[in-house]
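Lab meeting notes turned into a lecture example. A postdoc, R.K., suggested we walk through two folding results consecutively so the class can see how the record format repeats. The first protein's sequence and structure tokens come next.
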Amino acid sequence: MNISKYLIPCIFTVSLALAQMPWEMPVSEEASTPSSEPEPEPFYSPPPPPPPPPPASSREPAPEAGKTIFDNVRGHAYNPYGTVGAARTVTDLVLLPSDIHGKKFFYVSPIDRLGYTAFDLGGASALLGLDNSVMGSPAALIFGYATPGFGLALDLSLSKSWQTTADDTDISTTNPGDNIGLYFSMPMGSMTLYANASWLTYDTSITMENDGNKSKTDASTIDANVGALGSAGSLNYDAYANVIRTGTATKTGNNTTASRDSHLGLILNFNLGYAALQSANARMIAGLNNAVGIRFYDGANAESNDNIIRATISPNILGEVALVDNWFAFGGAIHNLAFQIGDGDRESATSYMALLHGPRTEGFMGVRYQRTNWAFEAQVSTNPFGAFAGNNIFTSFGGFVYF
């Protein structure tokens, strides 16, 4: 009997059945280790991850809402005529100290002999200014502090001396330029409320006392302002009331005499600035500064004038344009129109009325080179060609570092 004839088909059938059964074989650790051979690259390679952002100090800061390339803090070369709606200057940060908040910069002007810096302090912002009195001397210290809700600034330029003579006379002297100023402002939406007051000695003032006898000569100006500054679309405004007391008074015992110009002034100011032309690279602001007030001259001086009513209108313009390679140019002009009614000397019993333009129109022009973190700014003098004769080509020159 040929057994191999039947055995071979049986072995084939059993092998086929075993192959159809699910077998779970243990996998060794060596078999589970991925192969060291590189896998084939896919048809699409994802792009490399973006580079990390640059440090915060070198990134271009995001512009504030409504701000333009012209609205960085500016120096003394910019906007000498006070056109409303122009960019803030370092001087404006003293008058409106709430604007100090969020500012971080360093500024120095060698021609104007001053420097300012603003920085973070205690969760708010601070301003330190090394400046001069409004009369040019003596030097002044300026301190400012601002939170999101309000700002305060103090201006100190003190120049006093005290001495005692051999005959026991005490002498106190206050020199010209001695000044103390206090400033406050508070933002309210699109409007900022502000108030300030200052005491300036404009001529040498002396107090002498000996054995109860006292004489005093005081030449000073006390100035106070309360107002509101804001905008409505392209129209900007600055409205404020001013009270001023100025003059020289001499007091000896019970007798007091006043200088001819000693007076009390009450003035209302309403200044406007309209961005009449504006694009991404240029703008022009047409301004109109207006003031109307009355002077009450001291009655202690029989030669003084009676009350004077005066209105002043000062049209002004300011324009600026972005040039090539980060260069900017700016300039402006102003002149005054005055209307005045008053009395002459009391002895003559005369009166007068006058309407006249200022003696001339004034103008200025400046340039600015601006990068992300720094800028130079200069105002060109009336006669730039005077540099050939050794004069300074610039009326004002300053540099900024922004942080």
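The second example is placed directly after the first for contrast:
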Amino acid sequence: MTNENYSNLQHCLDDYMEQSGKQVINEMEANSELARCGLMEDDQAEPGRPLRELLARLRDSNLLPRNIKQSFGAWVIKNSRSLQVRQQIFLF
């Protein structure tokens, strides 16, 4: 998967979080939204598994974005656009 594909996934999730008024979602909700948009298939038997596997590969290769964390085995995905705004505020 290329950086452009990762960018498309992140853009889709950011749009979803802004439209739903959420700042944080889990991997199951994120994978469901990506499947709805046609960017990534979801596993009906294990919802969220394809995204979990992708995030684990990114973590292992040290390419995981700053807005995605793993806490006690669960993935937490934050709106990356809100992180950018906060960084700009702290820089001034």
